[in-house]
Amino acid sequence: MAKIFRAFTFLMAFVTLVMCVIYYSEIPEEIPIHFNYKGEADGFGPKSSMLISLGVLYIIIIGIDVLGRFPKYFNYPVAITEKNKEAQQKNAKAILQQVNFGVALLAFFFVYRYLNIEFAKVYEGYYVTIYFVVVSFFGLIKAFKY
Q1: What are phi and psi of 81, to 5 degrees?
Q2: For the chain, what is the domain count?
Q3: What is the residue range of 120's domain?
């Protein structure tokens, strides 16, 4: 399952980059860079800030992906024994991949919002928040299970 999340993470990041490249010339010089809790834009900046955000996105995604390759250095919520070591490491890697996918998904929706694509009007910030809460909740339950 972690491989699926990893593949979709990089696919989502690539699609986000492609959207930016395709629509960059059509983006207004000033775009929303911050949204309040209601999903309304309350901060604005130059359109180049979207490219900076994409750079940060790729740094985060690659960083989390590299971090996931070294589970022995993670901080676990339970004592690691030979009996639970493999399961805990597998769970930790899966949770990291899910969080990484959530980061890519969040960036995708922000770019959608920047581009004022019709779908962005449906997104009010709740879906990604719900995703993070559900993944975190079930991930923690699974981590404490072993």
Answers
A1: -120, 170
A2: 1
A3: 2-145
> The dihedral of CA 41, 137, 53, 22: what is its sign?
negative
Write a three-state SS string for the chain.
Answer: CHHHHHHHHHHHHHHHHHHHHHHHHHCCCEEEEEECCCCCEEEEEECHHHHHHHHHHHHHHHHHHHHCCCHHHCCCCCCCCCCCHHHHHHHHHHHHHHHHHHHHHHHHHHHHHHCCCHHHHCCCCHHHHHHHHHHHHHHHHHHHHC
- Taking only the tens place, the pLDDT of each residue in 53-112 is 889 989 999 999 999 889 888 888 888 899 988 988 888 888 888 888 888 888 887 777
